[in-house]
Automatic annotation (TrEMBL):
Molecular function as annotated in GO: transaminase activity
Key word Nucleotide-binding present: no
Keywords per UniProt: Aminotransferase, Pyridoxal phosphate, Transferase
InterPro entries assigned: DegT/StrS_aminotransferase, PyrdxlP-dep_Trfase, PyrdxlP-dep_Trfase_major, PyrdxlP-dep_Trfase_small
Protein name: DegT/DnrJ/EryC1/StrS family aminotransferase
Superkingdom, taxonomy of origin: Bacteria
Family annotation (Pfam families): DegT_DnrJ_EryC1 (PF01041)
Signal peptide (residue range): none
Family, as annotated: Belongs to the DegT/DnrJ/EryC1 family.
Coiled coil is among the record's keywords: no
């Protein structure tokens, strides 16, 4: 079986360092807000090119806390792509706002600036850096500036990616990222962070995530319990030291897939937007008869998957927003075609060749060529 993501292979490369770090924490008893948390925050901020980083419990909390900290008004609209994970929209609702969906461009499947409509009720844009590359931030910033609204970033899938040399969290007011185990920088459980270069926003996010407290037993605002666990910070520090190398290995693997699949009929390969350094969190091709092809791959031992089969605007949880099929044709078409192939830093050339051969055979069997 070739897994979609091999978490054990990544763990093997950091196991000794993580074990030593866990022992250090167990010896000190600093399980919450221990020194490894602060150290990771500084290291990840530097790695990302951001002034500040606040570790929180998960990526959804990171987005919510960033929006709350900057004063999202109740009922205000936040524009985001329809082709994203549901957490992007959940965070807006939890912060008191209303998701306003927009379509992606057909080539890169990133939020399309030409598809963004900024109505009077819209307060911010929330582009999603999908699959490992940044959205066209300079164009989206122009849209936001013309409309007088703010920009935040969903950076859950792009740790280490850049656009024109600038990383996530350096374009808008703040970025929320996730350290879910399958991410490029994944913890051994849930975790997340807010990146920002605004000192006041950093301060408020820290207070909100720690019960609204600036010092013990003084609660300046109504807050939450959303803190990055010290043991997870140990894992993330060990992995962060290897992230640039792991991302380079992902890029090499993506290039191998490009070559292996270049002459395979019926498959549309992913592309990197000019100006982006992609970190290939996901290698997502597009095919017809996707579900049938996926079933053949899985039956043959290839752990391919789908991200995401139902666009957020068509999810039952958001039915009350009034969107219907056909509202965002690019996102809806992509949702029916996307097929995510196995990709992780330790994947071998032999494994990738097997994936490519199995995909080509499945496409022929389904008449999708």
């Amino acid at each position: 079986m070739i897994p979609l993501v091999d978490l054990l292979a990544g763990h093997a490369e950091v196991a000794a360092e993580v074990e030593a770090g866990f022992a250090r924490v167990l010896d000190t008893g600093a399980f919450v807000k221990g020194p490894d948390v602060g150290a990771f925050e500084r290291e990840f901020a530097e790695f990302s090119g951001s002034a500040y980083c606040v570790g929180v419990a998960n990526g959804t909390d990171a987005l919510e806390l960033a929006l709350r900290a900057d004063g999202l008004p109740a009922g205000a609209g936040v524009v985001m792509p329809a082709n994203t994970f549901v957490a992007s929209a959940e965070a807006v609702v939890r912060a008191g706002g209303v998701p306003v969906f927009a379509d992606a461009d057909d080539e890169f499947l990133l939020l399309d600036p030409a598809a963004v409509t900024v109505s009077e009720n819209v307060w911010a844009l929330l582009p999603v850096h999908l699959n490992g590359q940044l959205a066209p931030m300079e164009d989206l910033l122009d849209v936001a500036s013309a409309a007088g609204v703010r920009v935040f970033e969903d950076a859950a899938q792009c740790q280490g990616a850049t656009r024109h040399g600038r990383g996530a969290g350096t374009w808008g007011r703040a970025a929320g990222t996730s350290f879910y185990p399958g991410k490029n920088l994944g913890a051994y459980g849930d975790g997340g962070a807010v990146l920002t270069s605004d000192a006041e926003l950093d301060r408020i996010v820290r207070e909100l995530g720690d019960h609204g407290s600036s010092r013990k037993y003084v609660h300046d605002r109504l807050g939450f319990n959303s803190r990055l666990d010290t043991l997870q910070a140990v894992v993330l520090r060990a992995k962060l030291r290897r992230l640039a190398d792991w991302n380079a290995r992902r890029r090499a693997a993506a290039a191998r897939y490009d070559a292996l699949l270049a002459d395979v009929d019926g498959v549309r390969l992913p592309r990197t937007m000019p100006g982006n350094e992609h970190v290939w969190h996901l290698y997502a091709v597009r095919v017809a008869c996707r579900d049938e092809v996926l079933a053949e791959l899985n039956a043959a031992g290839v752990g391919a998957g789908v991200h995401y089969p139902v666009p957020v605007h068509l999810q039952p949880a958001f039915r009350e927003l009034g969107y219907v099929p056909g509202d965002f044709p690019v996102a809806e078409r992509a949702a029916a075609e996307i097929l995510t192939l196995p990709l992780f830093p330790q994947i071998t050339e032999e494994q990738q060749a097997q994936v490519a051969d199995t995909l080509a055979k499945a496409l022929r069997n389904q008449g999708a060529v």
